[in-house]
Amino acid sequence: MYKYSHQTYAKIISLAIIMATIGYLLWSIFTPVPPALDYRIALIAELPQAKHKLNGQVILSDGDSFKMANTNDRVRLHGIDSPELAQNCSQNGKKWACGLQAKLALSRKINHAEISCVGDELDAYQRLIATCYLHVSGQENELSLNGYENLNQWMVKNGWAIAYRFYSERYIGSEKFAKTKRLGIWRGSFMPPYNWRRQNPR
């Protein structure tokens, strides 16, 4: 009698465990995850409205263009113009690789983090013309928007790109700041990147 009761009890416990496991799996599948648990979902909704929104790690081409590592979508930062990768600038009569340094500055800023980009148009090279943001939760400053820092503006304000006035006047103030502080390419002389490209076509 004791042996039979023990076996029955064990079966009941096993069945209860199985039912509980099934219940948990069903709950996990059909219960939506609150967006607030993932800042990329929660905050990207707060970015400016645009036709395209990209998020992920990036592979830099230079100081103002890159491709998304997860989708291979190509991006060109809107409203700024950074020295081309092969471009040199001058300081005290000496040339220095300002194009390479601009790329390295952006790389260090991002530091392998995921970024979010928003934009409406593609250029002639099928790149999304975008404003891109770095997540800086807890580090908000004058360049940040709802936990995201504007990388386009950061590049200009730190002297690694100029305001591309042909397309936007948004970053003129940031350019004046970098020029006054002699930051980045403003420490010496340089050819505007758009003129350098005309003289050095691909």
* Unreliable stretches: 31-44
Summarize model confidence as the mean pLDDT. Answer: 82
Number of strands: 12
Radius of gyration: 26 Å
Verbal overview:
With 202 residues, the chain is α+β, with helices and mostly antiparallel strands. The chain has 2 domains: 30 residues; 163 residues, OB fold (Dihydrolipoamide Acetyltransferase, E2P), CATH 2.40.50. Helix content is 36%, strand content 23%. It is built from 6 helices and 12 strands. The strands form 3 sheets. Strands 1, 2, 3, 4, 8, 9, 10 and 11 form an 8-stranded mixed beta sheet that branches. Strands 5-12 form a two-stranded antiparallel sheet. The chain has a two-stranded antiparallel ribbon with strand order 6-7. Strand 3 and strand 4 form a beta hairpin. The chain is elongated. About 7% of the residues have low confidence.
Summary keywords:
two-stranded antiparallel ribbon, 6 helices, 202 residues, OB fold (Dihydrolipoamide Acetyltransferase, E2P), 2 domains, alpha+beta, 8-stranded mixed beta sheet, elongated, 12 strands
SSE blueprint and pairings:
Elements: H1 2-30, H2 39-44, E1 52-56, E2 58-60, E3 65-68, E4 74-77, E5 80-81, E6 89-91, E7 94-96, H3 98-110, E8 115-122, E9 128-135, E10 144-145, E11 148-150, H4 151-157, E12 162-163, H5 172-181, H6 193-199
Parallel strand pairs: 4-9
Antiparallel strand pairs: 1-8, 2-3, 3-4, 5-12, 6-7, 8-9, 9-11, 10-11
Helix pairs in contact: 4-5
